[in-house]
Amino acid sequence: MAVVMRLSRGGSKKRPYYRIVVADERAPRDGKYIEKIGNYDPRLAKDSPDRVKLDTDRAKHWLAVGAQPSDRVARFLDAAGVRERAARNNPKKGELGTNAKERLEEKAAKAAEAAEAAKEAEEAAKAAAEEAANAPAEEVVAEEAPAAEEAAGEEKAEG
Predict the structure, then answer these.
(1) InterPro entries, per this entry (predicted)?
(2) CA 73 vs CA 7, 9, 38, 151: distances in Å
(3) Dihedrals phi, psi of 24, to nearest 5 degrees
(4) What is the H or E stretch that residue 110 is in?
(5) Which of helix, strand or coil describes residue 4?
(6) Rounded to the nearest 5°, which phi and psi values hold at 52?
């Protein structure tokens, strides 16, 4: 008799709740099982301690006897530190392709250039502000005087 560790679904429609069970592989998913070793509630937050409850001692026992866990139960066992789970998917599948990598590099280079240009503009603005602050007050007054004379001349011409 082949024994498996798998999830047995409970709960109502659109409100799943699972039991982690040890069962004969020929038994139906929600049918007869040998032993219940835990619970899994997918509706709870991922960091919630009540999301997965597992009796690790019984899980170790059934693994020693030869029970084969399903993929999801193997993930739970790995998270609990009971059994190491080897990655089953292609680890390179999620990596970006060469064109996408090139686009990202171009985007990063443009962002760096824009940041450098903004920094240079900021430095130029600071330098201009320092020059204006260091300029003698007489020059500023002298520059304002002709403008004031022109304004006065315009008023006389109008009157």
Answers:
(1) Ribosomal_bS16 (IPR000307), Ribosomal_bS16_dom_sf (IPR023803)
(2) 7, 13, 10, 87
(3) -70, 140
(4) helix 98-134
(5) strand
(6) -130, 120
Paired tokens of 69: 């866990």
> pLDDT tens-digit profile of 68-102?
999 999 999 999 999 988 777 777 777 888 899 99
- Can you read off the two tokens belonging to residue 158? 């109008």
Measure the CA–CA gap between 73 and 33, rounded to whole angstroms: 15
- C-alpha span between 38 and 21 (Å, rounded): 7
Residue whose structure tokens are 């409100």: 15
11-57 tens-digit pLDDT: 999 999 999 999 999 999 999 999 999 999 999 999 999 999 999 99
Strands of the sheet with 68-69, listed across from one edge: 52-54, 35-40, 15-24, 3-12, 68-69
Query: Which residues on adjacent β-strands are paired with residue 4?
Result: 23, 68
